[in-house]
Amino acid sequence: MEKADIGLIGLGVMGSNLALNIAEQGNRVAVFNRTTERTTEFVQSAGALTDRIVPCETIEALAEAIRPPRPVILMIKAGDPVDQQIAHLREVLGKGDSIIDAGNANFRDTLRRFSELKDSGLTFIGMGVSGGEEGARHGPSIMVGGAENAWKRVEKVLVSISAKFEGEPCVAWLGPDGAGHFVKTIHNGIEYADMQMIAEIYGVLRDGVGLEPKEIGGVFGAWNTGRLNSYLIEITEKVLMAQDPETGNPMVDMILDRAGQKGTGKWSVIEAQTLGIPATAIEAAVAARVVSSMKGEREKAQEVYGKLDSGALAGDRAALLNHLELALFAGKIAAYAQGFTVMAAASKEFGWNLPLPTIAKIWRAGCIIRSQFLGTIAEAFQAGGAEDNLLMAPAFVTMMKEAHPSLRHIVARASEAGLPVPALASALAYFDSYRQARGTSNLIQAQRDFFGAHGFERIDAEGAYHGPWGSGLSA
Ligand code: 6PG
């Protein structure tokens, strides 16, 4: 039998769709799943693509079915299952073969796996894949980390299956070892912030103005033709327009307000903190999901503190909508600035040399945060001026100057009305702190010196100083 070009382990929804995508692009793919029934079912459902799929009942058979040097994609649950699968693959693969972990791995696990496989003769690729089920099937955005020569061996297949933005493939080798999984994690962190800010605007329109889901859907639909044009805004409109087949009510009204999370948002925040980079909009988004999960406590708290009056923001609708659109845009700019700053810091810390404009470019299509806006980010990095922070790139200065007054207006009005807008408020606070040449940490330094003699710098002289507090003052 003709050998396969590539192998794939894990035929869950993402794995199956990726395998079909690989086959559709003219590649032969050998597949294996823990349960053989699933493999059989998958092959039976593959239609005309069956000819390019080689079903395997064992890992040994999978290794045998692929033409060397053998690349094997793992599309399985992140964590221990990946380690177990790698251990098994080490027994059946040989020098020059590669293992490609395409799950949402923690990049620290990827770093560890790299060092564990260093002397094995196998190459390892940590690959972030974004785009959900549809993306996997018809073109995801792919973020590759690993040895460059390992990437070269799989480049053709990955380019063939990736999303294309105006003909440009949304896949790139981003750097060694954990670079790909790190970038995917930050992609997801930004995704959390983006989604949370959209949800906050929905909350303002639902509880502050009293609009129905379909009316709010219409607002998002209109925004999707402008500066906010993006996949997440597009699906938000669709979600808000959908009806529950069971009750006939708007679907969104029938969904419990308790958000799940699998970890990538939290990892983004942990890594940002470890790198000493503020990612406050992402932090707020992760925290908002945690608060959302405390449904019972929130119900009790509402009984104690009372329900807020809805409709507090009804009034000049057109002006409010204009402010909301700009507020969301300003919040988005701050969140993306944070995400890219975290990546820049990680790039230095881990010696990855991450190509930030390329990252923005491969996110223009295929992934969950895809949008035109990412093209603007890529251009800003290319044009220069975004080295410290996207907020300093000339194009972004212009956009932010136009949009931040609306962010301020919306955060203020929502706060007065008691409507929670944590990600938007964090984005605003970040912006305001970032652009304030003289902040308030002089007082923090004085306090630190007062109680712990930590010392401070003076504005008028070099060196470390202590204040005139003396022991008498603390009495
Ligand atoms: C993507 C998504 C994908 C997945 C996340 C969702 O880029 O395709 O981000 O990776 O949907 O796992 O994460 P949560 O379950 O944490 O929301």
What does this structure look like?
The structure is a single chain. The chain is α/β, with parallel strands linked by helices and 475 residues long. It has three domains: 6-177, Rossmann fold; 185-434, Orthogonal Bundle (N-(1-d-carboxylethyl)-l-norvaline Dehydrogenase, domain 2); 445-472, Up-down Bundle (Single alpha-helices involved in coiled-coils or other helix-helix interfaces). The chain is built from 20 helices and ten strands. The protein has helices spanning 13-24, 36-44, 59-65, 80-92, 107-117, 132-138, 148-161, 179-209, 213-223, 231-241, 264-275, 280-293, 295-305, 317-350, 356-362, 373-383, 394-417, 422-434, 441-452, 470-474, and strands at residues 6-9, 29-32, 53-56, 71-74, 98-101, 123-130, 141-146, 164-165, 168-169, 171-175. The protein has an eight-stranded mixed beta sheet, with helices on both faces. Strand 2, helix 2 (36-44) and strand 3 form a beta-alpha-beta unit. It binds 6-phosphogluconic acid.
Sequence-ordered SSE layout with sheet pairings:
Elements: E1 6-9, H1 13-24, E2 29-32, H2 36-44, E3 53-56, H3 59-65, E4 71-74, H4 80-92, E5 98-101, H5 107-117, E6 123-130, H6 132-138, E7 141-146, H7 148-161, E8 164-165, E9 168-169, E10 171-175, H8 179-209, H9 213-223, H10 231-241, H11 264-275, H12 280-293, H13 295-305, H14 317-350, H15 356-362, H16 373-383, H17 394-417, H18 422-434, H19 441-452, H20 470-474
Parallel strand pairs: 1-2, 1-4, 2-3, 4-5, 5-6, 7-10
Antiparallel strand pairs: 6-7, 8-9
The structure holds 6-phosphogluconic acid (6PG).
